[in-house]
Every structure is written in C-alpha cells, then in structure tokens.
C-alpha cells in the first residue's frame, strides 16, 4: 500500500473514532496508536532525504501525513461540514453513515486546503476508501458529492 494511501486510511480511522466517541483529537490520536497493530507501527523502511542526510523511516512520514489530515480536518470541521451539506442534495450530515461522512470530510479538507494534492487524487482515494469500508454504492455517493465540490472550486 502506498504511504499516502495508508496515511489517509489511518486518518479516516481516527476521524471515525472521534465521531463515534466524541473524544477530542489528542485523546483519539493516542487511543489509536496505543492499539495499532505491530505490523503498522513497526514499518520503518528507510527513505533517503532530499538533502542526502539521514534516512527518515517511512512510517514516520505516514504518521506525519495522517496527523496533518486529521488535525486539518478537525480544525476546519464546521466549514467542511457546511461545504459538504451544501453539495449533498437532500442529505444532512447527521443522516449519512459515519464512514461516508468522515471520508467526505477528509477529502473535502484535501480539496480545499491542500493545493499540492491534485483534486483527482483526493477524489480517487476517497472513492477507494468508501468502496473498501462501505461498498460500491458508497463510492458512487462520495464521488458525486466530491466532484460537485471540485467543479465549484474550479469555477471560483
């Protein structure tokens, strides 16, 4: 699994935990890593740094990116939810399944606040997460909403 894909999966799991438990970000982050499987937390394949310096474990990069995604999503939650609801015709966030709601939040954060990530990458990753954790129909649902957000962003 690619490192950013794995980071998005971790971010989704932590956002899910926050949503169902109402823990704050820090508590959920610590709970997640306290029980995460050894094969994930021991992934330390070295990656050479751009300046040729010391290698940085791949896992640290995954963890850093997942932290950026979770923290950014939580810090912008109200505005993200407003955007999602404005494009989710006849759907309130409270009616959406927890998994889809958090996939949409995560991908909308990327679309609006991560200009270095191509929008199509964010959308495709979200569709893959929805299919994996919720099914084919969830992938279509997520795609429809995110594509509307992407098109709106292009117009503005």
Characterize the structure shown:
The protein has one domain (3-39, 56-155): N-utilizing Substance Protein B Homolog, Chain A, CATH 1.10.940.10. Helices cover 73% and strands 3% of the residues. The protein contains eight helices and two strands, in the order αααββααααα. It has helices at residues 3-21, 25-35, 38-41, 58-75, 77-87, 98-113, 119-133, 136-155; strands spanning 46-47, 56-57. Strands 1-2 form a two-stranded antiparallel ribbon. The radius of gyration is 16 Å and the shape is globular. The model is unreliable at 41-47 (pLDDT under 50).
What attributes does this structure have?
single chain; 156 residues; mainly alpha; N-utilizing Substance Protein B Homolog, Chain A
* Percent of residues in helices: over 70%
Question: What is the CATH domain class?
Answer: Mainly Alpha
What's the number of extended β-strand segments? 2
Q: Spans with pLDDT under 50 lasting ≥5 residues?
A: 41-47
CATH architecture: Orthogonal Bundle
- CATH evolutionary superfamily: NusB-like
The total number of structural domains is: 1
Strand order of the largest sheet: 1-2
General form: globular
Radius of gyration from CA coordinates: 16 Å
Order of helices and strands: HHHEEHHHHH
Under CATH, the topology can be stated as N-utilizing Substance Protein B Homolog, Chain A
Largest sheet: 2 strands, antiparallel
Helix-strand makeup class:
mainly alpha
Beta-strand portion reads: under 5%
Arithmetic mean of pLDDT: 88
Count the DSSP helices: 8
* N-end to C-end Cα span: 34 Å
């Amino acid at each position: 699994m690619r490192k950013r894909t794995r980071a998005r999966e971790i971010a989704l799991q932590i956002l899910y935990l926050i949503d169902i438990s109402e823990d704050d970000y820090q508590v959920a982050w610590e709970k997640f890593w306290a029980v995460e499987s050894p094969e994930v937390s021991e992934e330390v394949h070295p990656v050479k740094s751009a300046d040729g310096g010391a290698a940085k474990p791949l896992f640290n990069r995954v963890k850093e990116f997942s932290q950026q995604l979770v923290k950014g999503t939580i810090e912008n939650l109200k505005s993200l939810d407003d955007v999602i609801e404005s494009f989710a015709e006849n759907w309130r966030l409270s009616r959406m399944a927890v998994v889809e709601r958090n996939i949409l939040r995560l991908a909308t954060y990327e679309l609006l606040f991560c200009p270095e990530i191509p929008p199509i990458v964010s959308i495709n990753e979200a569709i893959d997460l929805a299919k994996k954790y919720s099914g084919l129909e969830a992938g279509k649902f997520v795609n429809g909403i995110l594509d509307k957000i992407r098109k709106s962003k292009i117009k503005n």
